[in-house]
Structure formats: C-alpha cells, structure tokens
Write a structure and sequence with these properties.
Layout: H1 9-23, H2 28-47, H3 51-55, H4 60-63
Length: 67
C-alpha cells in the first residue's frame, strides 16, 4: 500500500503544485529533460562506461616518432 513510504498522494500533489508555482508549467519539460540527462550522465560515470573513449580515434602522432 505504501509505494513511497509514509508519503501519500496528498503530499505528492502538494509537492507538484509547489514545483509548478516555482518553475512554471512551461519550464517543467526542460527541467525534466535536464534532470534525466543528469541522472544518465551520473550513471555512466559511476559505471565507468565512457562513450567518448570508445569512439575517439587513436592519435597517430603519439605512437610514431617524427622522421
């Protein structure tokens, strides 16, 4: 019955109302997108997976001495 612990539906609605008053209805999608990207970046940094290291081309100049 307690999905979020002691927080009930009335409390969730109150928090949502306060967020809408503070940020406005137009900013909520941007806020959600930013929060989602932040969580995704945090998860990737914690797991050690970095897409930039995998897709970066190797630096040929560092491996071959100049002639």
């Amino acid at each position: 019955m307690f999905l979020f612990g002691p927080i009930g539906p009335q409390e969730l609605l109150l928090v949502l109302l306060i967020v809408i008053i503070i940020f406005g209805a137009r900013k909520l999608p941007e806020l959600g997108k930013s929060l989602g990207e932040g969580i995704k970046n945090f998860k990737s940094s914690v797991s050690g997976k970095d897409k930039n290291k995998e897709t970066a081309p190797p630096d040929d100049k560092a491996h071959h001495p100049p002639a």
